[in-house]
C-alpha cells in the first residue's frame, strides 16, 4: 500500500437554530480575515451571519494554533449527566443546514483528533503499551468510519437488517448507524470528543506519536477492531453478537499467554455451565486496583466483580422486567433456557418460558437489555431457579462471567498485559489473530 498523507476527519459537534462561538485567533472566510465573537442563526432555511444568508459557511484557521470556542455544547446526550459546556477546538469550523437547524462540524487531521479522544477516554495512569494498543485500535476504527461514509455516498444500495421478529422469536443486534453529514459525532455514540477543552495527557500524546499512522489490517483490508471491558476468560466471535458473518481475525481464544484455542467447546451447554462456575488463570482475572483503574472510569463507584458476577431477581421483578422490555405479557416466568451459545459461552438465543406463552430472544445485547433495568454484564450466564411455589420459581439467580460482548480486545486483559511488559504489538496480535500492523500515512 502506498504511504499517503495524513487524512482529515469531520466531526459533528452540535446542532441548534442559533450558535454562538469565538474565534481565538485569525480565521479566513471568503478571503476575509475574521476574529472574536460571532453568531450564526437559521432564518428561513438559511444560515444568517453578519446580515447575509448562506447555505454553508467555512472558517479556516490561518495558523495551526488558532482555535475556536463553541458555546453551549451538550455533552453526554441522553445520559444522566447531560450538561452544556463551552468547548474549544483546533482546525476548520464548518456550518451546514440540516433538519431545521445549523450543524457545526469540525475538520481536523486524524492524529490531532485521536490525541483528544484517547486523552478523555483513557486513564492517565495507563501503561504506555496499553495506550499505544488503544491508539492503533482507535485509528483503525476512525479510518473505517471515514471509508464507510465515502462508500455510502457512492452506493445507496447498502442496507443492513438488524432485526427479525416473528410470533415466537425476536433476533436483534445493535450496531452503530453511520452519519451522513460528517464522519463521526462528538458523543459517546461514536467517541466522546471535546477538542482541546481539557488538557491532553502527555502519555497519550507520546502513544499517538509512537504509533503515528499505524492501523490493523487483515488480508489487505482494514480490521473491524472491536473491544470490550472484560471477556471473562474466553474471547467471543463477531457473528454471535452482530451480523452473521465471520471475521477471521475476531476468533475465539483463551485470554492467557498460551496461544490455545478453548479446550472445551463452550457452545455445548454442559461445558458452558461448568466453565462459568470455574475461575481460571487468565489475563482478565484480576482484582488489582492499579490495573482496574486504567479501564474503569469511575473505579470507586463501579463494581469490581465482573470477571464473575451474580444477579438475583424475585419472580415479580423478573416478570415485570421482561414484560416491560419485550412489550408483551408472558405470564409468570417459569424458566430461562439457553438455546444457543457462542464460542465464549455467551448466549445468543434464549427462550423465556412464561405461564401464558414463551418467547425467544437474541442476540447477546438484546438478552442483556431484557434481563436488566440497564444491561446485564454479559450473556455468558447460567440461571438457577429456587423457592418453587406450585411449579413457579420465586427466585432467579443469574451467575455470569465477563463484561460486554467479549469480541476482540479485552480491555482488562490488555491492561494486565501492559503491566506485565508485553509490548503493544504483542497485545494487539494476541486479540486480533492473523492481523498485521501497517503504517498507513507519514
Ligand atoms: Zn456518532
Ligand atoms: Zn479477557
Description:
Helix content is 22%, strand content 34%. The protein is an alpha+beta fold and 442 residues long. The strands form five sheets. Strands 1, 2, 3, 4, 5, 6, 7, 8, 9, 10 and 13 form an eleven-stranded mixed sheet that branches. The chain has a five-stranded mixed sheet with strand order 11-12-20-19-18. The chain is globular, with a radius of gyration of 24 Å. It starts with 7 loop residues before the first strand and ends with a strand. The structure holds zinc ion (ZN) (2 copies). One zinc ion binds at residues 230-231, 255, 283-284, 410, 413.
Report strand %.
25-35%
The end-to-end span amounts to 13 Å
Mean pLDDT: 91
Fraction in helix = 10-25%
The molecules bound to the chains, other than polymers, are: zinc ion
DSSP E strands, number = 24
The tally of helices reads: 9
Low-confidence stretches: none
Main structural class: alpha+beta
Shape estimate: globular
Radius of gyration: 24 Å
Secondary structure topology:
Layout: E1 8-16, E2 18-29, E3 32-43, E4 46-49, E5 52-54, E6 56-61, E7 67-75, E8 83-90, E9 92-98, E10 101-109, H1 110-121, H2 128-154, E11 163-165, E12 169-172, E13 184-185, H3 202-210, E14 214-218, E15 221-222, E16 227-228, H4 269-276, H5 289-295, E17 308-314, H6 315-326, E18 333-341, E19 347-354, E20 358-362, H7 364-370, E21 381-389, E22 392-401, E23 409-410, H8 411-419, H9 424-431, E24 436-439
Parallel strand pairs: 1-13, 12-20, 16-23
Antiparallel strand pairs: 1-10, 2-3, 2-6, 2-7, 3-4, 4-5, 6-9, 7-8, 9-10, 11-12, 14-15, 14-24, 17-22, 18-19, 19-20, 21-22
Helix pairs in contact: 1-2, 1-3, 2-3, 2-8, 2-9, 5-8
Bound molecules: zinc ion (2 copies).
Amino acid at each position: 500500500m502506498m504511504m499517503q498523507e495524513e487524512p482529515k476527519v469531520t466531526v459533528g459537534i452540535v446542532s441548534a437554530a442559533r450558535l454562538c462561538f469565538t474565534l481565538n485567533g485569525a480565521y479566513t472566510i471568503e478571503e476575509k480575515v475574521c476574529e472574536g465573537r460571532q453568531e450564526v442563526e437559521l432564518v428561513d432555511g438559511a444560515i444568517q451571519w453578519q446580515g447575509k444568508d448562506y447555505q454553508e459557511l467555512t472558517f479556516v484557521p490561518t495558523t495551526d494554533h488558532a482555535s475556536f470556542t463553541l458555546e453551549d455544547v451538550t455533552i453526554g446526550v441522553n445520559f444522566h449527566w447531560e450538561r452544556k459546556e463551552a468547548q474549544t477546538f483546533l482546525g476548520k469550523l464548518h456550518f451546514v443546514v440540516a433538519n431545521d437547524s445549523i450543524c457545526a462540524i469540525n475538520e481536523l487531521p486524524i492524529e490531532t483528533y485521536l490525541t483528544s479522544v484517547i486523552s478523555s477516554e483513557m486513564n492517565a495512569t495507563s501503561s504506555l503499551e496499553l495506550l499505544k494498543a488503544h491508539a492503533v485500535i482507535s485509528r483503525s476504527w476512525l479510518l473505517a468510519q471515514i471509508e464507510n461514509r465515502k462508500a455510502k455516498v457512492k452506493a445507496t444500495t447498502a442496507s443492513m437488517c438488524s432485526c427479525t421478529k416473528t410470533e415466537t422469536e425476536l433476533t436483534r443486534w445493535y450496531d452503530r448507524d453511520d452519519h451522513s453529514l460528517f464522519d463521526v459525532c462528538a458523543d459517546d455514540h461514536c467517541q466522546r470528543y471535546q477538542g482541546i477543552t481539557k488538557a491532553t495527557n502527555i502519555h497519550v500524546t507520546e502513544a499517538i506519536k509512537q504509533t503515528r499512522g499505524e492501523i490493523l489490517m487483515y488480508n489487505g483490508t482494514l480490521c473491524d477492531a472491536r473491544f470490550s471491558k472484560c471477556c471473562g476468560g474466553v474471547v467471543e466471535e463477531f457473528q454471535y453478537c452482530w451480523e452473521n458473518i465471520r471475521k477471521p481475525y475476531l476468533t475465539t481464544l483463551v485470554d492467557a499467554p498460551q496461544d490455545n484455542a478453548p479446550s472445551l467447546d463452550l457452545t455445548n451447554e454442559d461445558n458452558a455451565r461448568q466453565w462459568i462456575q470455574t475461575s481460571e488463570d487468565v489475563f482478565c482475572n484480576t482484582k488489582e486496583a492499579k490495573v482496574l483503574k486504567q479501564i474503569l472510569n469511575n473505579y470507586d463507584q463501579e463494581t469490581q466483580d465482573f470477571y464473575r458476577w451474580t444477579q438475583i431477581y424475585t419472580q415479580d421483578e423478573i416478570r415485570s422486567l421482561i414484560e416491560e422490555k419485550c412489550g408483551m405479557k408472558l405470564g409468570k416466568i417459569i424458566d430461562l433456557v439457553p438455546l444457543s451459545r457462542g464460542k465464549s459461552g455467551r448466549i445468543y438465543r434464549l427462550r423465556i418460558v412464561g405461564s401464558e406463552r414463551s418467547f425467544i430472544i437474541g442476540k447477546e445485547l438484546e438478552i442483556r437489555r431484557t434481563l436488566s433495568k440497564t444491561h446485564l454484564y454479559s450473556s455468558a450466564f447460567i440461571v438457577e431457579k429456587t423457592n418453587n411455589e406450585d411449579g413457579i420459581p420465586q427466585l432467579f439467580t443469574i451467575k455470569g462471567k465477563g463484561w460486554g460482548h467479549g469480541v476482540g480486545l479485552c480491555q482488562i486483559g490488555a491492561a494486565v498485559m501492559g503491566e506485565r511488559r508485553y509490548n503493544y504489538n504483542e497485545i494487539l496480535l494476541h486479540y486480533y489473530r492473523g492481523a498485521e500492523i501497517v503504517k498507513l500515512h507519514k
